[in-house]
Amino acid sequence: MSVHSLSGRFLILTTVFVMLAEVLIFVPSVARFREDYLLLRLEKAQIASLALLANDMIDAELERELLQNAGVFNVVLRRNEARQLILSSEIPQPISATFDLRDPHALELIRDALWRLWHTDNEVIRVMGNPVREAGLLIEVTMETAPLRAELIDYGLRILALSAVISVVTAFLLFLAVRRFLVRPIKRVVRAMISYAEAPEDARRIIQPTASVTELRDAEVALAELQTQMSGALRQKERLAQLGGAVAKISHDLRNILTTAQLFGDRLERSEDPMVKRAAPKLVSSISRAVNLCESTLAFGKAEEPPPALDRVMLADLVGDVIEAERLACGEHDVSFSEDVPASMVVRADPEQLYRVIGNLARNARQAIVASGEPGEIAVQADETETEWVVRIRDTGPGLPPKARDHLFQPFQGGARKGGFGLGLAIAAELVRGHGGQLQLEDTGPSGTSFAIHLPKVVVELDAAAE
C-alpha cells in the first residue's frame, strides 16, 4: 500500500483526524482530572480534621501523619461563621496562588490545568471548596503542586496512549471499509476503461453499472453512455471509410464516362441548330463541373480537399448560372428565384468551389420547398464591406428540422429532408473554410432559412494567422 494511493492517504488522514479529536477530548479530560485531584485532597483533609475534632488530644506525630496522608500542609475549616485552623505544619515557601472550587468555570479549569502542565516549578497553592456532607461552611488547604503535575502528566500519557490505539484501530477499520466500498469499485471502473481501450469496437466491453454507492454508480452510468457513443462513432467512422472507398471507385469510373460525354458535348457546340447552340455551352459547362467534382471526390477519398485555386470571379454571372440550373431542376413546381448581386462585384475565390457552395445551398432550399408542397421563393443577395464579401441565400421553406440543426455541417448526421445524408452543408462549410471564410446559419424557422457565406478580402499570412 502506497501513501500516494487512495487507501494509504485515507488511512493517514483518518489517523490524523482521530488523533485531533482525541486531543480535543484530552484537554477537558485533564482539566477534569485536576479538579477531581484537588477535590480529593479537600476530602482527605476534611476527614483528617474531623478526626482531630473528635479527639483534641492527638499528638504532633499523629497530626503530621494525618497531614501527610491528606497531602496538604494546613487545613482550615469554617464552621458557625468562625474560621478555625484545624491542622497545621510548616509551609516551605509562600503561597503563590489561590484556587476556589466552589463554583468553577470550565474555561478557568482548562486554563489552570494547561498552565500547571506547562509550569515546572514546585509551588505552594491554596485550594478552597465546600465540605462534603455540609460539614461546615468552607474548607481550605495548602499544598504543593509537584505531585499534582506528576499525576497530570501520568494521566495525560495514559490518555494519549489510549487515543493512539483507538485512532489506529478506527483508521484500520475505516481503511477496510473504504477498500470495500470505494477502492474496489474504482479499480473495477479503471479495469473496465483499460479493457474497453484495448478493443473499443467490442460492445461487450462496455461497462455495466453495478456500484451500490450513488456517486460511483452515476460515474459508471456516464462512462457507459460515453463508451456507447464512442463505439457508435467508431463504427460509423469505419462505415464512412468503406463508403469513401466505394465512392472513390465510383467517381473514378464516372469521371471516365463524363469525359466521353464531354467529347460529345464539344461536337454539339458545332451544330447549326440555334437551340443546340444555346444549350450546348451550358451542357459542356455542367459536364466539366461534374468531371471536376469527380476529381475532387477522389481527392476527398484521400482525406484531403484540394486547396482553392483563387481567381477573380464575377459573382453575378456565377449566381446566374446557379439559379438557371435550379430553375431547370424545378420542373412544374412553383418555386421562384430572385437575385440581388451587383453586376460589377468581383470576388476572389475558386469559381468551381464557390459554384458548388452556392449550388448546394440553393439545391437544399429548392428541395425543402418542393418537399413542403407549398410555393416558395429562393433569394440570393450579396454585398461587401471593407474586409469581406457576404453572400446570403434565403428561402421561404419550412426551416431546418431539429436533428439537422443539432448536427449542422456534420456529414451523415441527419439531412434537412427525408432521404438526405447531410453532405451538402458539410461540403459547403469545408469549401468555405478552405477560402479562409465561414458559413453561418443566420436564421431558420417556419418562415424560412437563411445562410450567409463570409469570404475575407485579405489573405492572412501564416505568422499573422498564428498570432
Automatic annotation (TrEMBL):
It is found in: Cell membrane. Residues 249-459 form the Histidine kinase domain. One of its GO terms (cellular component) is plasma membrane. Its EC number is 2.7.13.3. It is a multi-pass membrane protein. GO terms for molecular function: ATP binding; phosphorelay sensor kinase activity. The keyword Repressor does not apply. The chain crosses the membrane at residues 12-31, 155-178. Residues 216-243 form a coiled coil. It comes from the Bacteria. CDD domains: HATPase. InterPro entries: 2C_sensor_his_kinase, HATPase_C_sf, HATPase_dom, His_kinase_dom, HisK_dim/P_dom, HisK_dim/P_sf, Sig_transdc_His_kin-like_C. It catalyses: ATP + protein L-histidine = ADP + protein N-phospho-L-histidine. The keyword Nucleotide-binding applies. Keywords: ATP-binding, Cell membrane, Coiled coil, Kinase, Membrane, Nucleotide-binding, Phosphoprotein, Transferase, Transmembrane, Transmembrane helix. PANTHER family: SENSOR PROTEIN CREC, SENSOR PROTEIN RSTB. This is histidine kinase. It comes from Psychromarinibacter sediminicola.
